[in-house]
Amino acid sequence: MTKMGLLTTFDRLVWAFTIIFTFIVLYIMGGGVGISWYPDQISPRAIEIKQYFDVVYLAGTFVSALFIGTFFFILFRFWDRTQPSGIE
Amino acid sequence: MNTLEKLEWATIVGAAILLFGLSFMAIPLLEEIDNVQYYGQDPDYTVKVTSFQWGWVFTYADGHESGELIVGVGDIVRLEMESEDVIHSFYVRELGFKADIIPGKTRIHLIKAEVPGEYWIQCAEFCGAYHGGMRTRLVVEA
Amino acid sequence: MEIEEVKKEQAITKEHAPFYSSWKSVLFTTHHTDIGILYLTFAFFFFFLGGASSLIVRYALTSEGSVSPEAYAGAFTLHGVSMLFLFIIPAWAGFGNWLVPKYIGAKDMYFPKLNALGFWLLPPAGLLIYLGMPNVGWTMYAPLSVYSAGWGMDLTILGLHLIGTSSIIGAINFIVTIMKMKAPGVTYRNMPLMVWTQFTTAFLQALATPVLAIVLTLLLLDRNLGTGFFRPELGGDPLLWQHLFWFYSHPAVYIFVLPGMGLVSQILPSMSRQKIFGYSSIAISTALIGFLGFGVWAHHMWITGISVSARIPFMFMTMAIAVPSGVKIFNWIATMYGGKLKFSTPMLFCLSFILSFIFQGVSGVFLANIPLDYQLHDTYFVVSHLHYVLFGASAQAAFAGIYYYFPYMTGRKYNETLGMAHFLLTSAGLYTLFTSMLFLGLQGMPRRTYTYLPEFFTWNVAATFGAVLIAVGALVFGYNILSSWYRGPPVANKEDPWNLSKYGLREWPE
Prior knowledge:
The complex is a heterotrimer.
Chain A: H1 9-29, H2 44-77
Helix pairs in contact in A: 1-2
Chain B: H1 3-33, E1 45-52, E2 55-59, E3 65-66, E4 69-72, E5 76-83, E6 88-92, E7 97-101, E8 107-112, E9 117-123, E10 135-141
Parallel strand pairs in B: 1-5, 4-10
Antiparallel strand pairs in B: 1-2, 2-3, 5-8, 6-7, 6-9, 9-10
Chain C: H1 2-16, H2 23-28, H3 32-62, H4 69-103, H5 112-120, H6 122-132, H7 144-147, H8 152-180, H9 193-225, H10 238-272, H11 279-292, H12 308-336, H13 345-368, H14 370-376, H15 380-410, H16 416-443, H17 457-487
């Protein structure tokens, strides 16, 4: 039940792709590229806070992508389509 | 121990390292933000900030008062913030800075604006029905 | 002996007529399933009232001043108080009442009459709060709440006192029931995770709620006798309120969410058709979250000016609490691995719960880092974070629980199509609404404002659109549950409606 052998090489590629895709989507959405939700900062301390924010944002996006990507991959990979959705 | 259990321990250790690492990074920054010197420099002048339901009054060193905060570009300004009634919070998003003003206490904080222009000072702590309207301008003069 | 006979009779008549068929049995019932259903009915009644007030809030924010600032303050306060104290806490008490005795193989709770008392304290509390119409925010920060004119605040305080009493009574009952009434074979090492979360929650309630009672009493004295605990001109300190209030209300956050995690830990394995992964790590992380939850209250006060040396340990404690939360997410995802996932409505709500929980966890890490709070504290970023926990996690777990246990509770099927519609509307609305708030917070929109800078308008419209979707979904939910309760088709196998035995699982212990 808990063996990794359940997954084929193709599955693993899809899994990795899902994580990378999630990372890119989250990174763009939260203002990593192009859009900036965070206002432009005008003081040295504020700029340092913004730099720190960017580090946390990168780490947060990375962790979210690992969890959310894996979540969606497992969701679709192990969806048993033979079971009806309702109460039998 | 099977693969999933190993992965679980990796998650625990990885998360702990990441989170504690971020916290350690925050400490020097935190100490700087609350410092009474701005990167080792003393403030140029003091402005007294009085907050009340629902507005702000700024008193400058020469005794003159205004409803907008006017500072020179690049000046290190020492804000002495006080509240006359309930808790207010001084928030300028471009300065990345917010401070709750507790009645009965004087909150001291340094600001330094390096880009001329007009910015919003918003109250960030709910202070009664008209809290949303409690905002004024920060004018940074060149 | 006589009591035994009466109970036997009750058990027999229960087979024929449900307890709500006569007013007398509604008022005097002490059976745990009946009380559970009373709690749930009460909770969802206030879910709809609290939801209505949140729609007033959203309407105020997208319709240029058509709601007065006073009404706006009243609406968001009522939304917070209703959802937290009159919806989530009673909902978890309801699920706990219905499920805990069954899951540990007991016939009833240890103190059935106290159990009934715990419930019947709530309707007067709800009435007092709605008569009081508080308008200072659910956190009731002093000294604003001290100066708030009229009786409204006093009635609210009395209402909250009743809720606090009710939840202490309920908590002690759960603790004793779980410690004393486990059937032979049910132990701390194998009792269902739902019971573990209720057990931890009960300890949190029993230990933290007295502090709420203290701080509310101080406020009542300040308001009516002029004692001045929170008034600086009389030698008091407004920060005292925040310390004591959050000493209750941060553990309370775990009171709001832990039982939801328990429900998900039951439903997710059943719908994945295999045993939960890492039973003991989920149980340990639950207890650990409960324990650490007492040591993080100051993270609600990062920018109040408390000293750096006080804030740093709290920052590390707050970070530490993210680890057991991450363990839980890992275990839930690992539970699905290699399973045969059945996408029924409760399963879909569990999945959306996990996704929301990831979002809240990550946004929580931003908020736990003190320097970022100089920008993010008291903005919509916080509003988004807390709604991902309280709506995305707690309320969705409650929906999942209602759908999953519906056939057990009523012996009938709910309408699966309407259930799916509810899920789609809720999740579409939820992610639109709270992600818009995330963006608003990063842009610097303070919370609890009836008016705002013009650049925030676009995302406020998006947020209101999301709120309307959730509201429509909630109406579908209400219709589905009520109509299925009265005339839904009966389930074929009432003991095992989800066909667990086919996959070697079981709902109740032997």
